[in-house]
Amino acid sequence: MVxxxxxxxxxxxxxxxxxxATSAETSAGTEESDGAVATTTGGGDxxxxxxxxxxxxxxxxxxxxxxxxxxxxxxxxxGSEVLGALFSPLVxxxxxxxxxxxxxxxxxxxxxxxxxEDNQTWTITLKDGWTFHDGTPLTAQHYVDAWxxxxxxxxxxxxxxxxxxIVGYAETQGEVDDEGNELSPPAATELAGLTVVDDxxxxxxxxxxxxxFPLMLGYTAFLPAHPSLIEDPDSFNEAPIxxxxxxxxxxxxxxxxxxxxxYEDYSGDAGNADAIEFQIFSELATAYNEVLAGNLDIMDxxxxxxxxxxxxxxxxxxxxxxxxxxTYLGFPLYEEAFQNPDIRKALxxxxxxxxxxxxxxxxxxxxxxxxxxxxxxxxxxxACGEACTFDPExxxxxxxxxxxxxxxxxxxxxxxxxxxxxxxxxxxxxxxNLGIEEIVFESLExxxxxxxxxxxxxxxxxxxxxxxxxxxxxxxxxAIYTGGASSNYSxxxxxDFDALIDEGDQAATQEEAIAAYNAAEDLLIExxxxxxxxxxxxxxxxxxxxxxxxxxxFAHVNLPKVVVND
Length: 566
Fold this sequence. Notes:
Blueprint: E1 2-3, E2 31-32, E3 35-36, E4 58-63, H1 77-86, E5 92-93, E6 100-101, E7 111-115, E8 121-126, H2 140-151, E9 175-176, E10 182-184, E11 194-198, E12 201-205, H3 213-216, H4 227-231, H5 233-238, E13 246-248, E14 257-262, E15 275-280, H6 284-292, E16 298-299, H7 307-314, E17 318-330, H8 341-349, H9 353-361, E18 365-367, H10 392-401, E19 409-414, H11 420-434, E20 439-444, H12 446-454, E21 462-467, H13 473-481, H14 495-505, H15 510-527, E22 530-542, E23 546-547, E24 563-564
Parallel strand pairs: 4-15, 19-20
Antiparallel strand pairs: 1-21, 2-3, 5-6, 7-8, 8-12, 9-10, 11-12, 13-14, 14-15, 16-22, 17-21, 17-22, 18-22, 23-24
């Protein structure tokens, strides 16, 4: 999932968390501040959580302006924050091990069981009695309808590629030209690999074995579709009808807010608060000041310039948690200036990450040494090697031998999220260490920034953050770097890399899968289509009005467990 609108990693994302845009880092599920960290992506966790006797009232929480509120189209973290309140997933994740959970041990999940004998044909059994917010009984057909809608190319859903493993996906894709214009419609509007066995059973046939499939089912793209989505997608996006602990109270007020109220007939663990107000801010600093003033209750991403002061200002209302997100600079490989991997490597080696982490983030980030965050199996400490190690002399030699860069370098980032200071710091290091004389900056509002990324119209290094979609090394690699993936904004295309990802996907054991994913990462380190910068720790603050505020490894507040104190 892409993180692109808040903090250092942004607040929204690609999706593929990790999903895109916008957007992870230390061990998951440790105890922090107010309680156990929850790791569910939709509607509560499996712990006892909040004080049910104290339930009631309402609270407000910061978000940036979402790009979409349709599950198959939302791949950034601000939209997924809202969807986590409106929907409950098939699968959630253990707070300590980040292992997938469903069935009786996970009351806020819809899957009763998920089974396969060969990792290729999967049977998903649903719990009985779940309903949408308008009372419509939730059935297997609603999942199949959602996944078909998400897959078909004419619906132009950001998360379409999540369904490409299902048999029949190719037939749901129309022919397009190099600019993405449709030349012919898709041959099919339904995935051949999806079968509704009965109201509570779905059979999924994959084109090849994929051991990570149960993990993937915890992602936003696999939420169900109320019939109104199919009938009127645009209207649904403004007021989604979900199956989660909270339901929409009115429609999305763009650039202002989104209000939700508790769904009284929810089949999982009820949310504590009666209502939640998502307040939309374009500037982190403004939101921070609103918390200080008592006008906003919860903020889960802080302005970098406030990291040093936040703990003193908020005391035990300052919370931290491990994260699965990391920040990187992507290269537009469609631009000639950045097509030489030695140029890209020199730019990476000319960055001294630790002083930036210390000075700007008050030590709350860790210099990245891998394309995979430490929170998941498959992370290798120091994997990036010299490419991520500060060596200005070697960087200068490599840069000059590769011919350098003619003309100005333009650095791109989203505005209002506190990126200016560290972008300027990197630019100064490039000026000093590589002799690049002219570096200019282009910043855009979040939605515009994502649009330019989608259009491949950025002309220089661009800031993005990534938040895993599900806890697997594969989630960090496939969505951003495989050929044609929706979050592959660099345009990286390496058939050998794609083949290794396929090998990992089809591995019989987790150990074999990790070995293949590690080999694929080694190719990334050699090619360096992006520069890993740092892994983050989540920081948040809250008012005195609320308690039991926790942040999960997906960088979301566990909203149903928040308790309103007055």
